[in-house]
């Protein structure tokens, strides 16, 4: 698979309003700290030519977009950006109060079974440090704080499980660290996965990304009712990995 240059990558705009927009970030792209190539730089360039987007957001070529929440370089999917301080504070307060419903799709190694009663998610609640952990100690060194991840199994292939993960807390790498502790690390995870699995995915499946995708987010806008922002769908490379491994859904991927 030929690697795309940053200028060739299209960034879908999922939703937009006065002072904000939501984008579908590709895996492997930093949100910031990589001038000219990161997501903030790429989105800023849209305002040079996209008159409709400028009109809808009230932002111009000189506006500065800032992410409202974290999304790791290797994770794809929905990310919310604010174009001024007041909008940023409005959205950030909801994240801090844990009022934002965020759902991720994760490809997990092995067969994770939905052993809870129908309609109830699996609950991962290992305590974690606020900073990142590692392969041998995913919980991290130092004081730990409560963490909760709800997990619903969507289907299985021969070697993997597709799951929807809902964050009830927001620690760094929370899904990845919880998945490792559950014995089902996220496919392609260079930090918490196994080196052997990484080599297999790279050389046998040409899969060179993290199998984690921010699929949807429900949030309250500055004016009007809450909205749910959906990504454009499970990324093609994640879908291909599952299909080539004989994926069978147990329920539909949530819209």
What percentage of the residues does DSSP assign to strands (E)? Answer: 25-35%
User: Mean of the pLDDT scores?
Assistant: 91
Low-pLDDT stretches:
none
CATH architectural name of the largest domain: 2-Layer Sandwich
Fourth-level CATH superfamily of the largest domain: Pseudouridine synthase
Class by helix and strand content?
A: alpha+beta
CATH class term of the largest domain: Alpha Beta
Q: Got a strand count? A: 11
Shape: globular
**Gap from first CA to last CA:** 28 Å
Major sheet characteristics = 11 strands, mixed
Instruction: Output the radius of gyration.
Output: 18 Å
- Number of helices in the DSSP assignment: 6
Describe the structure.
This protein has helices at residues 39-46, 51-57, 85-96, 174-181, 195-204, 236-244, and strands at 13-17, 20-25, 66-67, 76-82, 101-109, 122-124, 149-156, 160-167, 212-220, 226-230, 248-249. It is an alpha+beta fold. The protein has 2 domains: 1-97, Pseudouridine synthase (2-Layer Sandwich), CATH 3.30.2350.10; 102-255, Pseudouridine synthase, CATH 3.30.2350. β9 and β10 (226-230) form a beta hairpin. The longest helix is centred in the middle third of the chain and has 12 residues, at 85-96. It starts with 12 loop residues before the first strand and ends in a 6-residue tail after the last strand. The mean pLDDT is 91.
Main attributes?
Pseudouridine synthase, 11 strands
Q: Topology, please?
A:
Blueprint lengths: L12 E5 L2 E6 L13 H8 L4 H7 L8 E2 L8 E7 L2 H12 L4 E9 L12 E3 L24 E8 L3 E8 L6 H8 L13 H10 L7 E9 L5 E5 L5 H9 L3 E2 L6
Parallel strand pairs: 4-9
Antiparallel strand pairs: 1-2, 2-4, 3-4, 5-8, 5-9, 6-7, 7-8, 7-11, 9-10
């Amino acid at each position: 698979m030929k690697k795309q240059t940053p200028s060739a990558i299209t960034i879908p705009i999922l939703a937009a309003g006065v002072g904000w927009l939501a984008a579908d970030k590709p895996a492997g792209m930093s949100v910031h700290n990589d001038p000219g190539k990161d997501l903030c730089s790429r989105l800023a360039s849209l305002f040079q030519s996209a008159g409709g987007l400028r009109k809808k957001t009230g932002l111009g070529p000189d506006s500065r977009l800032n992410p409202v929440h974290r999304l790791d370089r290797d994770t794809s999917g929905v990310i919310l950006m604010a174009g001024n301080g007041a909008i940023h504070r409005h959205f950030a307060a909801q994240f801090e109060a844990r009022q934002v419903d965020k759902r991720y799709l994760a490809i997990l190694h092995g067969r994770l079974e939905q052993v809870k009663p129908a309609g109830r998610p699996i609950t991962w609640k290992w305590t974690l440090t606020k900073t990142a952990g590692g392969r041998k100690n995913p919980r991290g060194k130092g004081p730990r704080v409560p963490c909760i991840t709800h997990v619903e199994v969507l289907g299985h292939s021969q070697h993997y499980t597709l799951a929807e993960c809902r964050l009830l807390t927001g620690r760094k790498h929370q899904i990845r660290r919880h998945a490792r502790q559950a014995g089902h690390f996220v496919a392609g995870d260079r930090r918490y996965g196994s080196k052997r699995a990484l080599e297999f995915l790279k050389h046998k499946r040409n899969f060179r990304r993290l199998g984690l995708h921010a699929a949807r987010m429900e949030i309250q806008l500055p004016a009007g009712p809450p909205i749910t922002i959906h990504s454009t769908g499970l990324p093609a490379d994640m879908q291909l990995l599952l299909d080539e491994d004989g994926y069978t859904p147990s329920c539909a991927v949530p819209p």
